[in-house]
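Running co-folding for adenosine-5'-diphosphate.
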Amino acid sequence: MPPYDPESSARPGTEPDEQAHSSTSEVRDGAGAEHAVQPENAAALEAEIARKDAAELDRALLAAIIESSDDAIVSKDLEGTITSWNRGAERIFGYSAKEVVGKSITILLPEERWEEEPAILQRIRRGERVDHFETVRRAKDGRRINVSLTVSPIVNASGRIVGASKIARDVTQRRRAEEKARQAEADYGRLASLLPVGVYTCEVPDGRISYFNAKAAELWGRSPAPGDPDERCCGSVRLFRSDDMSEVPHERCPMAVALREGRSFRNEEVVMQRPDGSLITVMVNIDPIRDEDGRVTGAINVFHDISAEKEAELALHAQKRHLQTLLGLLPVAVLIAHDPECRHVTPNRAGARLLRIPEGVEFSLTEESRGVRSHFRATRYGSPVARGTAPLERAAKGEVVQAEEIDLEFDDGTTLHTLTSAQPLRDVSGELQGAVVCVLDITELKNSENALRDTDRRKDEFLATLAHELRNPLAPIVAGLEILEMAVDDPETLERTRGAMARQADQLVTLVDDLLDVSRITRGKFELRKRKVDLEEIIQIAMDASRPAIEKAGHEFVVELPDAPVLLEADPHRAAQILANLLNNAAKYTPPGGRITLTADHRDEQVRIVVADTGIGIPPGMLGEIFDMFAQIDRPQERGHMGLGIGLTLAKSLVEMHRGTIQVESAGVGRGSTFTVCLPSSGATASIEVDHPSLSTNGATNPRRILVVDDSDAMVDTLSIMMRLLGNEVRSATNGREAIDVAAEFRPDIVLMDLGMPVMTGYEAARRIREQPWGADMKLIALTGWGQDEHKQRTLDAGFDKHLVKPVLPSDLERLFTD
Ligand code: ADP
């Protein structure tokens, strides 16, 4: 490419004469200038040479600057013909200097720009400069190039405008970048308008809104006028804090703070009230906008409606609270593990109570430091529950645990029996989150189950003992019967045998009586016949009953009673039965030759009777149990003793029916026992009349006519004998029909009649007798082996006055005359 030639730049449009006269002012070709120097003045010549050198240097410097410029530097004459063309021009437009110098500048103009050139030349001719005129030119290869043109007139030495110098800068890149930026801005605007979130920007200093998208307007419920200084930077809606609904003043709204202080806000919740009064909760994110110097020029706010999430969150909170309340109220212990490792476990109120830990305290099943396992041991069927195998731990790993029996043994020695069920807790994707366990305290249930089992076991033992106890007296009776037959001629043997049989029979009767008493008491069918009675009378009856046993064992028997008589409101026979029971036991459970004491005192309206012995004693563990039904201590010393384990139960029931208490003490095995009975005294002294029971008005003074009816001859015989011995007149019959006939003739006061008989039953006979005029006032007494309530009701319905259950004792019959 030819270098820039300043000579040529002066040539076009410059007149030749003018060129000749400008020798001193312009940097020009040296040849022309040399002719203008006059040699006669050497000093002047020298000065001329120096000036020329300097001019030459300026010219070279200018040429170098022009050649090294990136911009196109071109000169043209006033006709638009190109006169010079630098390297920059060559690079930008693709033409070499050779190609374009001498040609019209219009070579560079695209068609639609043709008009520009004459206008530029016109301004140049007027001596004006064109500054940074942005236009488009065409390169040699046809490319359109954005250029910024600065065109200045070239003025010659005589001040004439001879052409124009033109600096063209390629601004295609810049224009492209600007275009891109514009495009990007438009794209961002479009994007923002499509966004489902509100976006807007505000400007410093007055916070006017410079931009907002459609969603922002929708959320505000209004469209503010952009740029309006009266608009508030919060979209001119009222704002409230989401936690307490207190109003946020405009100058404290997040956008105002961001503009003022250049602060960013992330996920800030605020409640907006829109012009129609509706409220929505929005989440706000704000960043300040800064210029190159870091000064805040505005802020951008991106916000979206979270009302639905908020409502769902509130509903969830409410649900959680309800659940929490429910858990607190549940009487069942519930533990929730909030992680699969059971590191964070929370109990409900019942759970905390069950585990004996403070309410509301979280604990861990894995970490010792926050554990609860330190103060109790969990066992399963007697073996410790190993780490990781507790129901909650297994459920937290995905297992469903159903009704597992776990015992919790606490440090204080107490044990809780529990029924434990556990379920895993998973999130929506099925991922394990923890577990929940329900622990039901079944200690009471378990204890009563054990107690029931115990009672059942004792009942079985009782039945075995009962069989044994019944056989004991029956054996001598059966043997006695045979002896009676064999020894009819031996009165002494007969008498001895009869005596032995009578004693065994008494024993049987006592046994059966005790059983019946206990049964009546448990069924609530037992009544005391209370009256005012002297304590001494009671003790006397008891001693009479027990003395044979005490004496037989050779015990020393000491009785100490209060000096003054003491009165009780009691059933004397039953009160005596209590004491006799204790005395008999003392005799029974004290090795021969022991000592038995009975002491009584009277204090604070309480009569205290103490029966103490020096016998085999009672082990401490049994003291609480011996009053239980069928309770017997299994020990060798007791084997062979009579008893069913109901004597003390009966004694205790009788004491309690008298509103008293009974207690036992024993220093231990072999160290004797002491039973203390306390009964309320009647508060009166013996000087007050003691009630005496009306003595039986037996047949000797007031004989009755009695009809005995039974299909068993033996029964007829024994009853008849008993009745006659009591002084009555007796007739008999063996079935219902016969009974009616005999009664019609004999007109008895009392009929003792069996029920199940051939020919006519007792029921039928009773009904018929009642129909007779003479039978209406007769006392009809049913005698039967059936003692159930329904049987009694049937006999009453048939017209009987009373119902006696066999075996009937003389005392029962005696009572008939008094009732
Ligand atoms: P039993 O018919 O077996 O005597 P009790 O109810 O009267 O029934 O007594 C229950 C148990 O209490 C007895 O089996 C015996 O082991 C114990 N017992 C009762 N009295 C005494 C006593 N005085 N000394 C030692 N043990 C006694």
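Result summary
The two ends are 160 Å apart (CA to CA).
The pocket of adenosine-5'-diphosphate is lined by residues 585-586, 589, 613, 615-618, 626, 631-633, 638, 643-649, 673 (CB under 6 Å).
Job closed.
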